[in-house]
Amino acid sequence: MLGAALTLIFAGAALISFLWVPYDITQLDIANKIKGPSGAHPLGTDHFGRDILSMIMVGARTSIAVALVAVGIGMGLGVPLGLAAAAKTGSLLDEVIMRGNDLVFAFPSLLIAIMITAVFGASALNAIIAIGIFNIPVFARLVRGAALSLWTRDYVLAARVSGKGAARISVEHILPNVTNLLIVQGTIQFSLGILAEAGLSYVGLGAQPPLPSWGRMLADSQTMISFAPHMALFPGLAILLTVLGLNLMGDGLRDLLDPRLRRGAR
Amino acid sequence: KTDIVVAMQLEPPHLDPTSAAAGAIDSVLYSNVFEGLTRFGPDGSVNPGLAKSWDISDDGLTYTFHLNEGVTFHDGTAMDAEDVKFSLDRARAEDSANAQKALFSAIADVEVVDPATVKVMLSEPNGNFLFNMAWGDAVIVAPESIENIKQMPVGTGAFKFTNWVQGDNITLEKNGDYWGTPAKLDEVTFKFISDPTAAFAAVMAEDVDVFTGFPAPENLPQFEADPRFQVIVGNTEGETILSINNKMPPLDNVKVRKAIAHAIDRQAIIDGAMFGLGTPIGTHFAPHNPDYVDLTGNSAYDPEMSKALLAEAGFPDGFKTTLKLPPPSYARRGGEIIAAQLRAVGIETEITNLEWAQWLEQVFRGKDYGLTIVSHTEPFDIGIYARPDYYFQYDNKAFQDLIAELNKTTDPAMRTDMLHKAQTIISEDYVNGYLFQLATATVAKAGVTGLWKDAPTQATDLTAVYWAE
Amino acid sequence: MSLLEIEGLDLDIHGAPILRGVSMSVAPGQIVGVIGESGSGKSMTAFAVLQLLPEGAMCRGRVELNGHDMLGLPEPSLCRLRGNEVGMVFQEPMTALNPIKTIGEQVAETILIHEDVSKRAAMARAREALDRCELPGDRFPMSRYPHELSGGQRQRVVIAMAIALRPKLLIADEPTTALDVTTQAEILRLIRRLVEEDSMGCMLITHDLAVVADMADEIVIMRRGEVVEAGPTAQVFAEMNHPYTRALFEASGHQPVREAQTQSVPLLQVRDAVRDYALPRNRLFAPQDYFRAVNRVSLTIERGESLGLVGESGCGKSTLTRAILGLEELQGGEILLDGAPVFSGHQPNRAVRRRMQVVFQDPYGSFNPRWKVARLVAEPFHLMDARPADWRDQVAKVLEDVGIGADAMHRYIHEFSGGQRQRIAIARALILRPELVVLDEAVSALDVSIRAQILDLLAALQKDYGLSYLFISHDLSVVRNITDRVLVMRAGEIVEQGKTAAVFDNPQNWYTKKLIEAAPVLPDHGVAGGGAE
Amino acid sequence: MLRYALKRLVSLAISLVVASVVIFAMVEVVPGDPAAYMLGINATEETLNALRDQLGLNGTLLERYAGWVGGMLRGDFGTSYTYRTPVAEMIGERLWISLPLALFALTLSTAIAFPAGIWAASKRGSLVDTSVMGVTQLGVAIPNFWFAMLMVLVFAINLRWFNAGGFAGWDAGILPAMKSLTLPAIALALPQASILARVMRSSLLDTLGEDFIRTARAKGLSKRQALWRHALRNALIPVLTIIGLQFSFLMAGAIIIENVFFLPGLGRLVFQSISARDLIVVESVVMLLVFAVVMVNFAVDLAYAVVDPRLRVRA
Ligand SMILES: Nc1ncnc2c1ncn2[C@@H]1O[C@H](COP(=O)(O)OP(=O)(O)OP(=O)(O)O)[C@@H](O)[C@H]1O
Ligand SMILES: Nc1ncnc2c1ncn2[C@@H]1O[C@H](COP(=O)(O)OP(=O)(O)OP(=O)(O)O)[C@@H](O)[C@H]1O
Ligand SMILES: [Mg+2]
Ligand SMILES: [Mg+2]
Q1: N or C: fewer beta carbons within 10 Å in chain B?
Q2: Cα C166 to averaged position of ligand 3 atoms, centre (Å)
Q3: CATH 3.40.50.300 matches C1-85+169-252
């Protein structure tokens, strides 16, 4: 509940920011830089005099977009791979997919993300790709594991008796029954994606200015933390609360969806 | 107390000042470990170094240097004219890896007269020659120790190199056999702290005694307010400019460049990026130089005029270009501010943050950029505008002739005149957006005395530093 | 004097009533059989004795074990009693043992927990207990891990653990449900022997009436958390006071009314079928090894016939089924339906497949939980080139035929009980009006009363639809009641076949004999016997 | 057991080969010429070429790959372009910070997570459980570099209990060295400990629900005994996986944390070398880290076999 509420707050803030933000963040107001929270600026201003509340709202957009697309990449590629591997267990295809997964897992993900963005240039897009790549094996493994047990179910056998092929069964029978798992894992990867984006942006390899990003706000505020702690506090809290919200929501969803899944399929 | 910990942002890649551009090498070793024939004083003046005096022939083509006697390298070998010849010949050789080879291009020959006298023949007169010899790239090294110089630098200075923990620190100790005024400190540790936050924390926590080139101007007020510390703000030779690719349309249009210049609010940049540190400039010349002309009026902040100029140039709705930024915070922060200011007059910029290596590759060598921000820290470098292949790609015959003339001229008054002219030409051609002269801030513990205020060259000369009671 | 005395036991879990006024008693040397259908509270009664109840359970009433008031004792005292005075054996031998400890350690642990003896002494006594449970030391060293034992052997280890300290009471909760008939017979014999040797009391929980009929001195019949009837075995069987007891008894030996329809026209012919499974390679470049799951099996099903296939778990019954249905290709031999091969040119033959369908064992696992019944039942239409326009009507009709009603079409499968699901499974099998229906353990997972209804339904449908059945089961009594002919399979081969009655009454093969001997049978005296006439 | 190990070893070797190709390929497309970086703004083309030759940057791709891998097999990681010292030496030096840091963090996270996870699981639903779960939720969600920043602010700048960063050096003695690693290790360990504690708890709860626990209880073991003797080792299997994975997170997470605390460790070496286009260092360090991660996973696989006898036969 709390999780869903927190998530909604930030998703809502991101959405509202398309229509309205308290201040235009593309306008710098150097004269008003580094002001603590006040009536005019509830969360204060940053080193360029921008309104931190507005920055956080627009930054939520970046964080959510990056994490969402990265999860999308991971699901979009990982789910079919996992389904294929499960459909053809023990085959060469399965072996190749699983070894490939192991390989990606063997790389320290953040390190490689740093390499990727270092090689291809720092940008939100490359951050998405780097985070997305490491989502692929997560989903592939999850789906394969779940699908393997589903493949032993009698209803799959019944579908085969009805003359359906592996691809069709994967889509009609396996996929719908792993969606719950995907939703739960998706929320978790989503929150990890937000953390990863923040980390990459913090070291300067994520979203580039003028696109606001929570991670970069933290990086910018770092040298000012001793005299303007509000600049570091609020973006950090935004990350913390969003990730916390997503994790709580993931747990909640698991509790909500899992027993039904178990009851449905015994 | 006779030891000191001096922190700086960048670590030298290796310890041979004569084969790399990295200013960090000079920051540690210049004057402390290595010395040249001449040397820079704290005010930027050229003073005698290993050469106690010199004679210049009337045609300006022959320099005869008289060396100090009894000078030894740290490994005990004597420093004599042979070493000078070796050093200069090495720097100008075909396969030389000297990053500032141009400094030596005027030299035609070097001749050893006797162990204490060396004669340098030039191919044409050069008003800057003594100045050139003061650079860190022109220090005197010994053939005996050249092999391992990158790891084990052996010089003639008041300090001896002792140890290097890569990634962390370099230590020097007092040279007991120094030929000149001995150093007051017994031991010096240079610590490398690249991260501005860490820099702040390290000073605050008193992990270091001095931080030269303190990277976060926003923290200076706190140090100033704290009686434990002193803050020394000085000039550098760094003209911080918004470099413009003069060959890339529409930036090849002088009206467009002028529009850019008028769109920029220098003071906002100095306040926003440097927290007030820095002197506005209107041309590529250091304001503390006596030959400086204040031309900031040529590019006063005037967005309306800027818009008008853009419309005149055929871009009433503005245009789009790239803004590539190297790592220092003046560039990164300044870039964001400039982007916002340019956006206000209709010019959209796509910001790309680059590491130095990428910047050198893409911008400096590849000339693949529209705008960039960089500080040109070489002293007295207006001559770069005479190089059409330089990354601004500014090609003005009149200016090139002027500089060629200047190089040959030794008469001070005429030089001043020509320099004024040169500054005006580039300012009125709006070659680049001239922002501010980079300031340098040194934060030190209250008792530290004898530090340089300004930075006429990249050096941390500790030979006169001591702890006051 | 009784060993265990349960009186007026009420049990609630999180406020939901589970047990109501349960009373029973066990005397030393006595076996009390507790039976009842799934969910009737048998296991909970047992757990209440040990006080190992799930979280949120609340007990009232009186449970007295050898003079100890189990409901009143503090936890440490209960721990001293468990394993010492009362031992327990569980249903699932595969998961009841800790997979990462040796069997010796696990048996010795019972001793070490309760007695202050050296590890060596405990191990020696563990050895003894294993020996007593017919796991001799030369073949079953104590250093074995559970996964190195078969199900029956694991169950013996669990029993050894339970009796290591010669407890006064042994509670066995469905100790043989997961096992083969032959293994079941051995385990039951072992329990009986141990009870006699130590004159232990034994509470034997089962849902199989026949098992208790053989074993128990007294019977307690439970239903929905209540005891409906109790008394000495012979008396209960003779009197059957409660209608539920009668229904239970009747359903257990239920014989559906059916007429022989066999037309002596071969419908399905299997000739010399061979099915090999590739074994995982042990070494990288080792030659591929195979496991032969079906070895040169030949059989014929005639039109309108019900053919039974029996055999212990893992003998290859399901594998053969899959081959017949054209799901897997054979490595040798051929399978023909009405003369047409099931597989032609490495491709399953769709025209043949349409004429065969299957019903599986697990009513919970055979449906996609995310589909509605209409879509589920219509799935076999995929075998047609196009789904007929009136498919909804056809689904409705077949649902009516299996006694579910057409309004089920718009509901999800979790809204149905096990028995209803199995009816829907049959509807799905019938939707294409096949000629052959394979029933792979189709009634094994159902409670006896439901099982009886399904068997009746199958018999009726066979007549209406003119079906042939291949009826696979390990439950001999069911096979006996519903098939015309029977095949006995062992280790991938058919060892005996013939008319059902002939094979059961006069088995020729030693294995068939053993199988039939091992199967527990209901006494045929009493009301039930009368009722069947 | 041996066969199991051998099989793992083969797949390990394949992983490493593929990894080396991927890393090499990736690093080779990095724009930026190390020679240009080293010589700076005013270097001439000829000087650049001379330097490139010295650095061996002029060979074909295949030659360079073969040279790199061959060298590594011999323990020769090449010479850093910028520092002009053997990479192996640089790595060796940095390893003395990164490895202790990773181990310190790992020890810390295990030392926190195990008791917390076990405690929470054994008192499921209690106040203890709820608060452990609450704290770990926060721990998982907190960005560790932000946490590090806050810790520096509080413990180094305000309270001045610890140094704000930097490494005292092992020469200064174990204690000062450990002291400079303490804050970074805590920053690294906190999220890991939270994850580990959660995994430990849920894995224990799962195991506690298994049939064999009921068997053990029926034998007369108390709840505690059943947990310690039977559940714990079984629950360890997923926990081991996570510990193995965490190693890779610790290695990578260290890059950021080493930056916050300016520790001269491997992570910072990578960062510096990337910006300096010191390709050979990047390649070698990343390869080394991948090697370490692969080896740790191999060790974890072997640890499984020790914990779980079922794996010993299933070759
Ligand atoms: N942990 C639990 N929480 C809530 N209810 C439970 C729990 N365990 C069992 N029940 C309920 O208690 C009732 C009795 O269960 P019990 O396990 O005693 O049945 P049973 O007769 O042993 O059945 P079976 O033959 O399937 O083993 C069932 O309705 C079941 O749903
Ligand atoms: N896909 C497979 N790969 C390898 N071996 C298999 C495979 N499927 C089944 N087997 C093996 O073939 C043998 C026969 O299995 P099958 O499922 O046909 O037995 P069953 O008689 O149906 O047993 P049950 O009564 O338990 O259902 C078993 O030993 C089994 O281990
Ligand atoms: Mg039960
Ligand atoms: Mg079967």
Answers
A1: C
A2: 24
A3: yes
What confidence tier does B308 reach under pLDDT thresholds 50, 70, 90?
Answer: very high
Classify each residue of D95-113 as buried b or exposed e, where b means 16 or more C-beta atoms within 10 Å of its C-beta: bbbbebbbebbbebbbebb
pLDDT score for B120: 92
Q: What architecture does CATH give domain D87-314?
A: Orthogonal Bundle (1.10)
Residues with CB under 5 A from ligand 4 (ion): C 318
pLDDT higher at B20 or B213: B213
Angle at C56 between CA C53 and CA C59, to 5 degrees: 60
Residue C369, ligand 1, Cβ within 6 A? no
Quote the CA–CA distance of A129 and A134 in Å, as a whole number: 9
SS3 label, residue C500: helix
Domain parsing of chain D, residue ranges? 87-314
Give the separation between CA C469 and CA C307, rounded to whole angstroms: 6
3-state secondary structure of C132: helix
Q: How far is CA C284 from CA A91, A99, B309, C280, D8, in A?
A: 15, 16, 76, 10, 11
φ, ψ dihedrals at D109, nearest 5°:
-70, -40
Place of tokens 């090495």: B90
Q: What is the pLDDT of residues C416-464, one digit of tens each?
A: 888 888 889 988 988 888 889 998 888 877 777 888 888 888 888 888 8
Q: From the CB of C53, is ligand 1 less than 6 Å away?
A: no
Query: What is this model's ipTM?
Result: 0.77
Neighbours of A172 (CB within 10 A): 18
User: Which residues fall within 8 angstroms of residue B156, CB to CB, at 6 or more apart?
Assistant: B34, B35, B50, B71, B72, B73, B74, B79, B140, B179
Distance from B362 to chain D by nearest Cα, in Å? 8
| Nearest-CB residue to D259 (from A103, A203, A247) | A203
SS3 content of chain C, % helix, strand, coil (to 5): 40, 25, 35
Q: Where are the beta strands (DSSP E) in C196-284?
A: 201-206, 218-223, 226-232, 266-278
Report the SS3 class of residue B93. coil
Answer whether A111 sits within 8 Å of D157, measured CB to CB: no
A84 and A167 Cβ atoms separated by less than 8 Å: no
Pairing of strands C201-206, C31-35: parallel
Which protein residue's CA is at the shortest distance from atom 1 of ligand 1? C54
pLDDT at A44 over 70: yes
Q: What local confidence, expressed as pLDDT, does residue D164 receive? A: 66
Cβ neighbours of A198 in D, within 8 Å: 143
pTM recorded for the entire structure: 0.79
Domain ranges of chain C: 1-85+169-252, 97-166
pLDDT in tens, B375-397: 888 778 888 898 888 888 999 99
C137 inside 8 A of chain A by CB: no
Which residues of D fall within a CB distance of 8 Å from B13? 38, 82-84, 276
Domains defined for chain A, CATH in brackets:
61-265 (1.10.3720.10)
Over residues D100-137, the pLDDT tens digits come to: 888 888 889 889 888 988 888 888 878 888 888 888 88
Using DSSP, state whether C89 is helix, strand or coil. strand
Angstrom distance (rounded) from CA A159 to CA A163: 7
Ligand 2 mean position, distance from CA C324 (Å): 15
SS3 D42: coil
Lowest-confidence segment of A82-86, B199-203, C167-171, C276-280 by average pLDDT: C276-280
- The CB of C95 under 6 Å from ligand 1? The reply is no
Of all protein residues, the one whose alpha carbon is nearest to atom 26 of ligand 2 is C313
Instruction: Give the integer Cα–Cα distance in Å for B334 and B340.
Output: 10
More confident: C38 or C269? C269
